[in-house]
Amino acid sequence: MKALVVEDSAVMRKLIERALIAAGATTVLTADNGRRALELFAAEKPDLITMDVFIPEVNGLACIREMRSADPNARIIVVSTVRDPEIVRLALAEGAKGFLDKPFTPEQLQEAIAKALA
User: Fold this and answer.
1) Of 16, 30, 36, 87, most Cβ neighbours within 10 A?
2) Edge-to-edge strands of the sheet including 76-80?
3) Could you give the CA distance from residue 16 to residue 96 in angstroms, rounded to a whole number?
């Protein structure tokens, strides 16, 4: 499995990357902003994407929209501190396969990954 972690916090990127590797990812790509995420998505065609909502350059909701437009089967899990139900609703309406609140346990992330890939 090839995964893409879109997260502006270096510490959180590393934490998610480790959890993805533990879940079986063979390649983990990372982006700290939405523009880079879209570039990597187009070039690398990852099997799974974890996406923060509030990231620089292109926000997470716009990234989800563009990724799902390019590939309706894109599997995206939103991983964010956002607790606003409207943001959660919008992310899911744009095609996210799940929404995981930060902070989370490795088990919670692995469960979200399994659901997204099912």
Assistant:
1) 16
2) 27-31, 2-6, 48-51, 76-80, 98-101
3) 17
97's CB contacts (< 8 A; 6+ apart) are 75, 76, 77, 115, 116
3 state SS of 103: coil
Q: Which residue has the higher pLDDT, 44 or 99?
A: 44
Helix (H) or strand (E) holding 107: helix 106-117
Q: Is residue 78 a contact partner of residue 42, using CB atoms and an 8 Å limit?
A: no
Structure tokens at 93: 């309406």
Strand ranges (DSSP E) for the chain? Answer: 2-6, 27-31, 48-51, 76-80, 98-101
CA dihedral (75, 36, 38, 84) positive or negative: positive
